[in-house]
Amino acid sequence: MNDWNKDRQFQSLNKQNRFVDVRVVRDGREQLISSADIVVGDVLCIDTGDKLVADGYLLVGHDVVIDESSLTGESEPIKKHEGEPWCRSGTKVCLRGRVGGVLRVFWIGVCVKVGLLYIGSGML
Q1: Contact (Cβ atoms closer than 8 angstroms) between residue 65 and residue 80
Q2: Residue range 2-121, CATH number
Q3: Closest Cα to residue 45, out of 53, 36, 11?
Q4: Beta strand segments in the chain, E
Q5: Distance from C-alpha of 86 to C-alpha of 8, rounded to nearest angstrom
Q6: How many other CB atoms are there within 10 angstroms of residue 8's CB atom?
Q7: Cα(70)–Cα(64) distance, rounded to whole angstroms?
Q8: Whole-angstrom distance between the N-terminal and C-terminal Cα of the chain?
Q9: In the chain, what's the furthest Cα-to-Cα distance?
Q10: pLDDT in tens, 47-92
Q11: In sequence order, what DSSP letters do the residues of 29-47 get, joined into one string?
């Protein structure tokens, strides 16, 4: 019985850890929401150390660098700019300097690149 209770507690904590608070701009003002509440079209504010929770297009950002190694295996972070604006869920934001970035959410859930990889592998 003790192992069963521990397993239930672990599963409950795991569910809570899947979602994080993120900053979005809605109705013209910045708001803090759960990543579970992100919808396509949201404007997501990103900063150094953030793990992206949706796929999106970088709208504004100076020296925004994304660590895509968890998705692509690339050892070097990728600088995002007008010619390379796509940011993918599951990657980590590495900004050079103190300026953050803003991206428009285009895909969420299993529609993101990581979700499509899971579907393709049969793991989902």
Answers
A1: yes
A2: 2.70.150.10
A3: 53
A4: 21-26, 29-34, 43-46, 55-61, 64-67, 78-80, 86-87, 92-95, 101-107
A5: 38
A6: 10
A7: 17
A8: 30
A9: 57
A10: 888 999 888 889 988 788 999 888 788 888 888 888 888 888 889 9
A11: EEEEEEGGG--TT-EEEE-
**For residue range 91-111, what is the model confidence (pLDDT) as tens digits?**
999 866 666 789 999 878 755
Rounded CA-CA distance 124/111 in Å is: 12
Within 10 angstroms of residue 70's Cβ, the number of other Cβ atoms is: 13
> Where are the domains positioned within the chain?
2-121
Cα angle 88, 108, 16; round to 5: 100
Place of tokens 């970035």: 101
Residue 52: closest CA among 95, 16, 96 = 95
